[in-house]
Amino acid sequence: MPRPVLATKPAPAARSRKGAATRARLLESAKAVFEKTGFLEARITDIADGAGISHGTFYHYFDGKEEIFREVAATQEALLTAHDDSDPDGDHHAQRTEYDRILQANRRYLARYRDNGRIMGVIEEVSRYDPPVNEARIGRQKHFAEQAEESIRRLQAAGCAATDIDPAIAALALGSMIGRFAELWLIEEWDDYDFDHAAEQVTKLWANAIGLHEPPKRSKKPAPTLARKASAPRKATPARKAAVAKRKP
Predict the structure, then answer these.
(1) Domain range spanning residue 18?
(2) Is the pTM of this model over 0.85?
């Protein structure tokens, strides 16, 4: 499914290059204000001041605080679901195990959530009473669930995951585990976990839940043949010397 994006109606002022730049400044300013004050206490005057425009000019771009917040939320949700084409291991991509791939995906999600923790906290709060923001949040969860389900089915077909696991239920449950863990850890500050350790632990839970196991690796090199050692020369004992002398004419 496409990544969750809340549709917003662009104002005529935003269609020019200058208008687009002003709109971008407004979104950046709004994100900073929402992070600092939360949604309810945020003021349009503060958002406009941060973007370097007048209070009245704000309404050339957005209808109000709700609309600009929904666009900020949509941008953040899209960031969490964006695919990462970078390969930290370079040419070793093909050598990564299935466990490594799951770990990389979990690390990427947790890192993005951590780096945007303040605004994500506000989004999680507003999503509880604002249907459009909640729709984007649910869209993000569905996006991850569908990706996870596809991955689990692929692993089952390859004989790398338990076949008695329901892929759809497992994907929803495991995705919810990662999402809720990120919220409690990085927003609610449940505890001060080391990032690498936390990512490793949730990945182990994920792998164990689906019965992940790696197929045996086939070596491309032919099996080495053992060279036959040359027999050591027999020691010439007196009895052997006598036997050889009898065979001589």
Answers:
(1) 12-81
(2) no
